[in-house]
């Protein structure tokens, strides 16, 4: 808070976001400490937090679109940062659920039937084959497990419990669309379900 925020030429907001992303990408074990620091800053400089979350979601979406060139550890750390920011009450529950649905639905849009000009019953279906989420790739399941392992325990009460239940049904549908889950992913998913 003592940085020269009011001086435009210093561009403190840019440097704080850049440093936060650098820590989140490289220091997985320090993500919870970073989230704690950012939660203290959020009431005084909310624009910096908004900018940071926008960058994280943008990088996450880019990683979902380019499966062969993504960096898995970096994406897992960024997802954990989002979960920790929720734990420290910086992010809202609906945003976390939007991110969860983004992870399992991105690229699985049901095509519209142009010949009959009919709108499909469902907008997303994990059985829609796409190059950005091939059936043999289970990384999205790891991202969901990481986010729910980080912040899922706070969804166990109230209205969010129903939302979590609905998401878990969609997540199971996503998992069942994959022909084969590797053993380590299957164990992660079973541990997550046991925890929740």
Can you offer a commentary on this structure?
The chain is mostly helical and 196 residues long. Helix content is 61%, strand content 0%. The mean pLDDT is 88.
Brief sketch in words of this structure:
It contains eight helices and no strands. With 196 residues, it is mostly helical.
Using the alpha-carbon principal axes, give the shape: globular
Task: Give the overall pLDDT as a whole number.
Answer: 88
Share in helix = 55-70%
Order of helices and strands: HHHHHHHH
Biggest beta-sheet profile:
none
Structural class computed from helices and strand pairing: mainly alpha
Radius of gyration: 18 Å
Count of extended strands: 0
List keywords for this structure.
196 residues; 61% helix; mainly alpha
SSE order and pairing:
Blueprint: H1 12-26, H2 31-42, H3 46-65, H4 72-87, H5 93-105, H6 139-151, H7 159-176, H8 183-195
Helix pairs in contact: 1-3, 1-4, 2-4, 3-4, 4-6, 5-6, 5-7, 6-8
């Amino acid at each position: 808070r003592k940085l020269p925020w009011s001086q435009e030429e210093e561009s403190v907001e840019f440097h704080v976001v850049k440093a936060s992303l650098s820590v989140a990408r490289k220091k997985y074990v320090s993500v919870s400490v970073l989230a704690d620091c950012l939660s203290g800053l959020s009431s005084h400089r909310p624009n910096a937090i908004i900018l940071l979350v926008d960058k994280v979601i943008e990088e996450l979406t880019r990683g979902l679109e380019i499966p062969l060139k993504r960096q898995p550890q970096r994406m897992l750390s960024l997802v954990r940062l989002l979960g920790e920011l929720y734990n420290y009450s910086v992010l809202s529950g609906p945003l976390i659920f939007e991110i969860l649905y983004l992870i399992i639905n991105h690229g699985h849009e049901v095509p519209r039937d142009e010949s009959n000009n009919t709108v499909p019953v469902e907008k997303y279906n994990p059985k829609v084959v796409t190059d950005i989420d091939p059936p043999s790739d289970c990384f999205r399941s790891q991202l969901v497990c990481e986010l729910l392992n980080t912040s899922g325990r706070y969804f166990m009460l109230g209205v969010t419990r129903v939302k979590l239940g609905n998401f878990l049904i969609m997540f199971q549908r996503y998992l069942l669309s994959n022909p084969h889950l590797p053993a380590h992913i299957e164990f992660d998913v079973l541990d997550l379900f046991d925890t929740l």
